[in-house]
Amino acid sequence: MNNVMESNEVSGNNQKLVRDSVRTVIFASMVGTAIEFFDFYAYGTAAAAYFPKVFFPEVTPTIATLLSLLTFGVAFVARPLGSFVFGHFGDKIGRKKTLVVSLLLMGLATFLIGVLPSYQTLGLTAVVLLCTCRFVQGIGLGGEWSGAALVATENAPENRRAIYGAFPELGAPLGFFLSNGLFFVLESWLTPAQMITFGWRVPFLASALLVVVGLWVRARMQETPLFRLAQAKQQVTKSPLATVFKTSWRQIIQGTLIVAVTYTLFYTLATWSLTYATSNLGFSNREYLFLLMGAIFVFAALIVYASKLADKFGRRRVLLTSSAALVIFSLFFPYLLQGQRNFLGAAAFLVIGFALMGIAFGPVGAVLPELFKTEVRYSGAGISYNLAAILGAAFAPTIATWLADNWGIKSVG
Fold this sequence. Notes:
This protein is mainly alpha-helical. The chain has a single domain (about 10-410), classed as Up-down Bundle (Growth Hormone, Chain: A). It is built from 21 helices and no strands.
């Protein structure tokens, strides 16, 4: 894999590159992606378990679930637009300012979802408002991950970029655990009717507190050293988007395809399997959330481990190994989701799946930034990451649900 994050940017200009402390880098890069994934997981859980009844009560349960999951995909369609906008400003005015704005936009849209009226109150207008908020959320999300990855990797020593790149990656399991943990607590205390009425709103409203914390952390960090160096050398491009598509289109395609598989796997594990397990395997929503929360620790551990391996043995070897293992997993996982309330099979499906997810996802925090030069890095990494979201995840839960209903679960594999 071609590494174009120039080593002399760091090693040859040490006197000009004053880095943030490791602690600041960890929190600044992790907090935003934790909020990002908290918001996305909250929506994914709500779309699978509650939105069919809240926003689509007048159709059959299967159609309601399909329509609800389609609204889940709206944000993925919006994310490339966000990567164009925030990538442009991230490469032009800096990573720090751009990340603050993207976090604010994302948090505002998520909060508004939590106060939306239901279908019974506004009819189809409620669905339109839901899709609008989801679209705005996607725009904010489009600038989040890539900027966080740059905060980490552009502050990293050359031989530790993959492990530094794991900091924003760890926001994924953290956000997942916080979101599903909150749903788990709510479902432990509230009745199903109360969850439909108001309980599902709590995680969306609670995200506002996380956004305040994230803004405070990011206000304390400085601009990344590599971008400051590019500014000092007057190497900041005036048209990052035009430049990245002209000079780095091959890297955009490469990055998109590398990341797409992780998206498909994750939303099959986290969103589709929740819907399938509660509607076909006899699990309650609370029971399956408990299994998901346990498996997420495996995901976090493998992100760190795979990142260390990527620094030691190279990104290519780790990614090829994970890809081969995923092909094997796709062939046998349907056999784990058989029978009613098969806790052992479901747990094995989630643990193995999230272990492979961690191996595939861990090196990505370093791989995407390394594909692009400093002057177009925010744009290139963001475009690749968010095109991968459309290709790999936008409609994966919906397609998997349709396949399982019409062709059986083996077709999902």
